[in-house]
Amino acid sequence: MPPDTFPRSILIADPDPGFLETLRSSPETVKIPALTVRNGKDAHAILADRSQHVSGIFINAQLTDPNAIMVIRYAHQYRPGVPIFITHLGTKPPFTEKELRHLAVHKALPMPVSYQEMVLLTTPVNLPHDFSHPEVDPDPEAHPTPEDQDYFSIRVEDFLSGENSYFDLYLRLASGRHLKIL
């Protein structure tokens, strides 16, 4: 199996160590590993690490250092198209449906959420893909390499089209149409 096709993992950011331990002990973690973190700083590090293959992101609304909104921002920045879910205590979600759409969050889930449910929610993304292609030696003059350090590279398997969100950036063209910047 090519290295870019499997294994993909699920990132779970939750401040409760007991809940994270329960998820790590789930039998489903053998096939789809769980990357568990207790704060936003560690979630950011995993999201920025291109060697980690993430197929779903579950963020507790009570997350701190930085907060859940910042982790959602990092997820959109480093892993565009990877489904994001908010977990929360109680029956009332921390965001309205409209706010979830604007944040490009797929769903708010009341706690506790089983790892099996997380796997089922991310199953379409966890199907095997082979994005390999033959190596081509392009003419360097025809395709110059950008030198700008402000660019963020993204993995093609992490990019799936989604709904509009506050984090989308558009340019208005002279024709009056808009171009979405990825």
The rounded distance between the terminal residues' Cα atoms is 29 Å
Helix-strand category:
alpha/beta
Largest sheet: 5 strands, parallel
Return the string of H and E elements: EHEHEHEHEHHEE
Q: What do the pLDDT scores average to? A: 79
Portion of residues in beta strands equals: 15-25%
For the largest beta sheet, what order do the strands appear in spatially?
2-1-3-4-5
Instruction: Tell me the total number of β-strands.
Output: 7
Shape: globular
User: What Rg is obtained from the alpha carbons, in whole angstroms?
Assistant: 18 Å
**Number of H- or I-type helical stretches:** 6
Instruction: Give start-end ranges of low-pLDDT stretches.
Output: 1-6
Q: What helical percentage do the residues reach?
A: 10-25%
Task: Write up this protein.
The protein has 182 residues and is α/β, with parallel strands linked by helices. It has helices at 17-24, 40-48, 68-78, 97-102, 115-121, 123-126; strands at residues 9-13, 34-37, 54-60, 84-88, 107-110, 169-172, 178-181. Strands 2-1-3-4-5 form a five-stranded parallel β-sheet, with helices on both faces. Strands 6-7 form a two-stranded antiparallel sheet. Strand 3 (54-60), helix 3 and strand 4 (84-88) form a beta-alpha-beta unit. Helix 2 (40-48) runs parallel beside helix 3 (68-78). It is globular and about 55 Å long. Mean pLDDT is 79; it is low at 1-6.
Summarize the model shown.
By secondary structure, the protein is an alpha/beta fold. The chain has helices at 17-24, 40-48, 68-78, 97-102, 115-121, 123-126; strands spanning 9-13, 34-37, 54-60, 84-88, 107-110, 169-172, 178-181. It is globular and about 55 Å long.
